[in-house]
Write a structure and sequence with these properties.
288 residues, mainly alpha, MetI-like fold, 2 domains, two-stranded antiparallel ribbon, globular
Length: 288
């Protein structure tokens, strides 16, 4: 092969290892999961018969799955706007000039330095109804793990804690990239801070907000570890999510076919929501 041919094929050779790893650890397991959802699978993981969409029919008629789907959607509706509001408010406050601005930014980054499992164990101790500090500070007797509403609220707070560091970093960077000349013109024109934010800053950080929105929805639809550590799906399945049920069916009960079916449904549902959100990009998101 001549030198010109090597130059043409070199980019494909460089990307080949990444494609091989992606196929081995992403695409191949995905296709096998879809195939398992259409089959009967033994405890040994072998497909014994093709059953078509029978597993999906059984799944959608399952009361536990209906609860998991409802809980996942409710968590997404609560978590996504709460997380964006908290992170955006923190970024706006820390973006202001002041002696404590840098210190406040460090505090907002701290959740990224703590492992997820450690954070959730801290939450579990803090919100313990008997010995936890939160009930003492609030001077209340809230049963955080026995009351369905309190348990969902706790799960939302845990989700915000896990995502706040990364989302704050993105929003803070986006706000700093807003041209200072435009902010100065806004001040000269007599615009108040709220008008400056809604008419100037918010449109300019739209691409970053869209990315955070999509990422938050993905995190909400796939939440499982905080559920496993904090509530274990209780009380009365009020915090049992789709991915947590997939864990129960596929790993705890050995029902690989049903677990694969839940995984496929989660993927399809998340993919559809992502497409709907990305459709906003052409209509509502403006790039500089």
């Amino acid at each position: 092969m001549n030198k010109q041919g090597l130059i043409k094929i070199k980019p494909y050779l460089l990307v080949l290892p990444a494609l091989a790893l992606a196929f081995l650890f992403c695409y191949r397991p995905f296709f096998l999961t879809v195939i398992n959802s259409l089959s009967n699978v033994s405890l040994g993981g072998k497909r014994t018969a093709f059953v078509g969409f029978d597993n999906y029919g059984r799944l959608f008629s399952n009361a536990s799955f209906q609860d998991s789907l409802s809980n996942t959607l409710r968590f997404t509706l609560f978590f996504v706007p709460t997380n964006i509001a908290v992170c955006l408010g923190a970024a706006l406050l820390c973006n202001r000039k002041g002696k404590l601005a840098s210190l406040n930014q460090v505090f907002m980054f701290l959740p990224m330095a703590v492992a997820m499992s450690s954070s959730m164990m801290m939450f579990k101790m803090m919100f313990n109804p008997s010995i936890g500090i939160m009930n003492h500070l609030l001077n209340s007797d809230i049963q955080w793990f026995s009351d369905p509403k309190a348990a969902m609220f706790l799960l939302v707070m845990a989700g915000v804690w896990l995502d706040i560091g990364f989302d704050f970093l993105l929003l803070s960077s986006a706000l700093r990239n807003v041209p200072k000349e435009l902010l100065e013109v806004s001040n000269l024109e007599g615009a108040n801070p709220w008008q400056t934010f809604t008419a100037l800053q918010l449109p300019l950080i739209g691409p970053t907000l869209l990315f955070i929105l999509v990422n938050n929805v993905k995190d909400a639809m796939l939440i499982s570890a905080p559920v496993l550590i904090l509530t274990e799906g209780g009380p009365f399945r009020s915090t049992q999510t789709l991915v947590y049920q997939m864990y129960l069916e596929g790993f705890k009960s050995g029902n690989y076919a049903l677990g694969s079916t839940i995984a496929t449904v989660v993927f399809a549902l998340t993919f559809i929501i992502m497409l709907l959100l990305l459709s906003l990009e052409r209509k509502r998101v403006y790039y500089q």
